[in-house]
Amino acid sequence: MGETPDIRYAPDTLRQFARALFTVAGLEEEKATAVAHYLVEADLMGHTTHGLALAGWYLQSIADGVMKREGMPEVLSDRGPAIAWHGRRLPGAWLTSEAAKLACERAKTYGTATIAIADSHHIGCLAAYLTIATDRGYMVSIASSSPSGAQVAPFGGRKGVYTPNPVAHGIPTPGDPILIDISASITTVNMAQRLVREGRQYEHEWLMDENGEPSRDPRVIERGGTLLPVGGLDHGQKGYGMALHVEAFTQGLAGLGRVDGPKGTNAAVTIQVFDPDAFGGRDAFLRQTGWLADACRGNPPRPGVARVRLPGENGLARKRGALAEGVVLHPSIVTSLAPHAERLGVAMP
Questions:
Q1: What angle do CA 292, 296, 302 make, to 5 degrees?
Q2: Among 88, 151, 176, 183, which one is most buried in terms of CB atoms within 10 A?
Q3: 165 Cβ contact list (under 8 Å, min separation 6)
């Protein structure tokens, strides 16, 4: 097949292709289905560094024994609305989606539920899981960190201590939900790696080299440089504070983290779900979020801005377009998956 950004793929075709790859690679059927679904979901929303771009890496992780192929998480604690799992390095997409569904079920009973997961494999795009809760009318927060990674330095320092530490929040409104997906660093490791492959630099100084100087060159990460926190060298204490909270919210609550020195690809994840009916009431909640959404969208735009958008608005629009017209994959993705498809005997789409 030709590799061109103009080719459009039916989402179901991509899901079936990815599911076949992961099934033949050895994942149990429900796990292969979940990984395929949430990787394609990220591509539908336009999060191209966290969609099928990750599939080759995941397949290699399965082959290397880093991602576990089968089984269930170990339940470390279960007090009803508060749960902790040891993920046993099972696929992150499956663990996260199952935890989000369970948190919604528990929130129906208790009003809110929190699930902390230790030692998951990589979970991909956090925004892809938010609608599990918002489709039920629930508010949700998801946070993730990687205890074996250290690509971001604490504000004022120059040696990496922690990871980008993303957080995502899904907020129901009377219309589309607000889907927030941000990280405590300005950019991500995956984006830096893509720019290195393409021989490009960042448009701004979003990195810091090994000597503590600002840089646009993604290759500094390979030399011991770091990703700058949100706020950069000017107000980076903001991203620093966010990152510290995520470290405690994920690794702290899960009870396993950097101090334990885990090796290989891993993630600590915490999912928290709220049922508005258990608080001020669903109608009252939507009245507040609806007003806020309208106030933001109706705000007069500054020069050069067509209109004010809400977080997630573009992603949902891209998804609707992709469902109707097909998905355009980033050109490097097909190339990266072809050798795995050949090795596993799976036909390319």
A1: 160
A2: 183
A3: 143, 144, 145, 152, 183, 184, 185, 242, 243, 246, 247, 250
Cα dist. 117→112, 198, 205, 268 in Å? 17, 35, 34, 6
pTM passes above 0.90 = yes
Bridge partners (DSSP) listed for residue 267: 120
The span from the CA of 158 to the CA of 110, in Å, is: 44
First to last CA, the chain: 8
The per-residue pLDDT string of the chain (349 residues; one tens digit each, 9 = 90 and over) reads 444 446 899 999 999 999 999 999 999 999 999 999 999 999 999 998 899 999 999 999 999 999 999 999 999 999 999 999 999 999 999 999 999 999 999 999 999 999 999 999 999 999 999 999 999 999 999 999 999 999 999 999 999 999 999 999 999 999 999 999 999 999 998 889 989 999 999 999 999 999 999 999 999 999 999 999 999 999 999 999 999 999 999 999 999 999 999 999 999 999 999 999 999 999 999 999 999 999 999 999 999 999 999 999 999 999 999 999 999 887 788 889 999 999 999 999 9
Q: d(Cα 159, Cα 156) in Å, to the nearest integer?
A: 10
Are 94 and 116 a contacting pair, CB within 8 Å?
A: no
- Tell me if residue 238 falls in helix, strand or coil: helix
The one-character DSSP state at 152 is B
Sheet containing 267-274: order of strands: 74-78, 82-86, 112-120, 267-274, 139-145, 166-171, 178-183
Q: Which two tokens stand for residue 313?
A: 């608005």
Pair 166, 143: CB distance under 8 Å: yes
Distance CA(335)–CA(341), nearest Å, equals 10
* DSSP symbol at 276: G
Cβ burial, residue 92 (10 Å; 0-12/13-18/19+): buried
Residue among 263, 312, 327 nearest 127 (CA): 312
What the block records as the tokens of 136 is 């039920």
